[in-house]
Amino acid sequence: MKKAPKELSERILKKIEALSEMPIIPDTKVIHGFKEKMYRVRVGDYRILYAVDYQDAKLDIVKIDKRDSVYL
Q1: Block means of pLDDT (10 residues each) for the chain, length 72 residues?
Q2: How far is the C-alpha of 37 from the C-alpha of 2, rounded, in Å?
Q3: Containing domain of residue 38, as a range?
């Protein structure tokens, strides 16, 4: 996120705030290949990978990066 322009950083923060209210939003996709259930949302060319812990009512942000490197 340090490399992201301020406008994009603000958009990412707003998306995270929206996810904290409702963890599964319309553009959410399930990501396979992880030990726990992972989700992905897009913000421009960036992706936010996260997990939802419903028991503890928390959102775990795993990674935020550009599309071409977020899955590495």
Answers
A1: 81 94 92 89 94 91 90 74
A2: 27
A3: 6-70
